[in-house]
Write a structure and sequence with these properties.
Layout: H1 5-14, H2 19-31, H3 36-49, H4 55-74, H5 79-95, H6 101-116, H7 122-136, H8 146-153, H9 162-195, H10 209-302, H11 338-347, E1 356-359, E2 369-372, H12 388-412, H13 416-444
Antiparallel strand pairs: 1-2
Helix pairs in contact: 1-3, 2-4, 3-5, 4-5, 4-6, 5-7, 7-8, 9-10, 12-13
GO molecular function: RNA polymerase II C-terminal domain binding
Biased composition (Polar residues): 277-299, 339-348, 418-439
Region (Disordered): 277-445
Length: 445
């Protein structure tokens, strides 16, 4: 059946207060959802044309609106919700004040259901309640208030994480089906008592067989629709459990991963504390060593150094040596030049007596004694040897060289072997000197 305004008006005219009548017209309206804007405007015009005394009819039309918007939300046909939100505030502003008190309470209850189930947005609910308040004061509704307009421009949106968005949508769908099913179950219970008595023949409230069959057909449709809704609710519950299992598994893995991260961080903290403690100990030890060095340096500065009297020879320790070779070396004699030796020898006068004893240097505790006997016929005057001058000079030179060689060996601290070699060389030179002296004496004789 195609959509026309006349058909909709006839259906609205035939609307009854029963659930069956409301559901039947609601399904027809949803079927023609492409004309949602036109149908909502026709619905609003029809409600406003009703006489003020017909409160029950107005309530039935509001129930029809309720069934349409809830089914539309379930079937994701959001056009009906948007279009009804535009006409409902004005309709409520016109009819609310003329309704019976009982009907007013039911209308308020209907608005609360829309708010709790989030059929309409919060700004839309505010507009509806504002329109009813203005109707009570006999004031017309001229549109959303400034507060509502500001909320419409930037309404607070509920933020749902993507992981829970599907779960939230499924849960909302299940709740809506459960609410519809609860109303259907109550209708099924009421009609079952009326049209399905335990003994139909004994009941006097049953209609004629033709009407009775029609009522049973309506009850059958209601039962089938309720049964379908229950199956869909079961699917939603199973889907919710599946989503919860997925979330639980993800949360379990997340907890395990968090524990591993916590252990790693704790290890880093332990290493950090250990490193910091080592560095602190290193700094403390460095500062303590610097302080000790400073104290030592200050102590060295403050302590007076000892003063020694170099002029006093009594304070110098002396050592006694048993061997004459270990005595301190005598100062080295300056070797005279040949010219000086020649001059001194030329001026040298030798006096010979009967017994002249010539003492030579001690060499290892040995003394060489030479006795010179003058001839009786020689005169007592200064004798200047002619041929023996060179021998005497050689003797004196070799004598001095041997002494210097001995002192050099003693001062240099040479080994015993070197000292023995020097002694042997000195003895050899001494023997040669003795031979020269004897040769000189033989010439003099």
């Amino acid at each position: 059946m195609s959509f026309t305004p006349d058909i909709l008006n006839r259906k609205l005219e035939a609307l009854q207060e029963t659930q069956d009548s409301i559901v039947t017209i609601s399904q027809w309206v949803l079927f023609h959802h492409r004309h949602s804007k036109e149908m909502t405007e026709l619905w609003a015009d029809y409600v406003l044309k009703l006489p003020s005394s017909n409160s029950a009819k107005k309530l039935s039309l509001l129930y029809l609106c309720n069934d349409v918007v809830q089914q539309a939300r379930h079937k994701r046909k959001m056009d009906f919700i948007v279009d009804f939100s535009k006409v409902l505030p004005n309709v409520l502003n016109v009819i609310y004040n003329s309704l019976d008190p009982v009907i007013k309470n039911k209308v308020n209850r209907l608005i609360n259901v829309w708010s709790e189930r989030q059929i309409f947005s919060a700004p839309d609910i505010k507009n509806m309640r504002l329109a009813m308040e203005l109707s009570t004061g006999n004031k017309s509704y001229e549109g959303p208030s400034n507060e509502v307009k500001s909320s419409l421009q930037g309404p607070p949106k509920e933020v749902i994480v993507p992981e829970l968005k599907l779960l939230n949508n499924t849960f909302q769908h299940m709740n809506k089906l459960a609410d519809v099913n609860q109303s259907n179950m109550s209708q099924i219970g009421t009609q079952s008592k009326t049209y399905l008595p335990s003994d139909p023949l004994s009941s006097d409230n049953l209609p004629s067989p033709k009407i009775y069959i029609s009522k049973l057909n309506v009850l059958e449709k209601l039962c089938l629709m309720t049964n379908s809704n229950l199956n869909e609710i079961k699917k939603d519950r199973a889907e919710i459990l599946k989503l919860l299992d997925t979330i639980r598994l993800a949360m379990t893995e997340g907890i395990s991963s968090d524990d591993n991260k916590i252990n790693i961080i704790n290890q880093r903290l332990e290493k950090l504390n250990s490193t910091r403690q080592d560095l602190s100990e290193m700094i403390d030890s460095s500062q303590s060593s610097k302080g000790q060095k400073t104290q030592n340096s200050s102590a060295d500065v403050e302590e007076p150094s000892p003063v020694y009297d170099n002029d006093s020879e009594d304070d110098i320790p002396t050592y006694e040596n048993d061997s004459a070779d270990e005595d301190a070396p005598s100062p080295k004699k300056i070797k005279p030049s040949p010219e000086a030796n020649t001059t001194s020898n030329n001026r040298k006068s030798v006096a010979f007596s009967e017994d002249i004893e010539v003492n030579e240097y001690d060499r290892e505790e040995q003394t060489v004694s030479i006795k010179i006997v003058r001839s009786d016929d020689s005169d007592e005057y200064d004798y200047e040897p002619e041929d023996g001058e060179d021998v005497s000079m050689d003797f004196e030179k070799k004598h001095k060289d041997d002494l210097e060689l001995k002192h050099e060996h003693e001062n240099g601290g040479e080994s015993v072997g070197d000292h023995q070699n020097s002694v042997q060389s000195s003895e050899t030179s001494g023997n040669q000197l003795d031979n020269n002296v004897l040769s000189l004496l033989s010439k003099l004789a």
